Amino acid sequence: MDPASQDINLNSPNKGLVVDQSDSLSDVPVEGAVGNSANPLPPGLTEEEAEELRTELTKVEEEINTLRQVLSAKERHATDLKRKLGLSPLNELRQNLTKSWQDVQTSNAYKKTQETLSQAGQKTSAALTTVGTAITRRLGDMRNSATFKSFEDKMGNLKYKVVGPRGNGDVVSSPTDTTPTQENPPF
Question: Which residue intervals make up region (Disordered) (predicted)?
């Protein structure tokens, strides 16, 4: 059995069997292949010009492949240099973010936004100060009112009745002298 005629595709149901070479696709013309006579030349283009263009195309494709190889080699070299310098992708990202943040901070839009927010903060602070002052004044007025004084007197009398004369900061013990616990809450 000739090894060249064996089917070596591991997914093939004919694995290891001899393949008939008469069914080979090597004689089948490929559409769009160079030199294919079935592909007519564009109008106004001679066979000689077409051959010249094909040759030029081949050279350009070879140059592209060469440039890809050179670029790949340069990228590997740059990676090696960065590794030797101790530059990691994380450090590069950190540097890029720092530079981007500095660029943002120096932009006109950022400066205008910062200025606007600063002014808004100052105005909000001033408004809250005014509201706080008004509330303090109103509470002071309310405390000096007859209604509040009457309420304060009633609360003082109630405290005196509950705590007694010792209620001026002295510790008053409970009737049972026990400390409140979860089972015995003080309320």
Answer: 1-46, 164-187
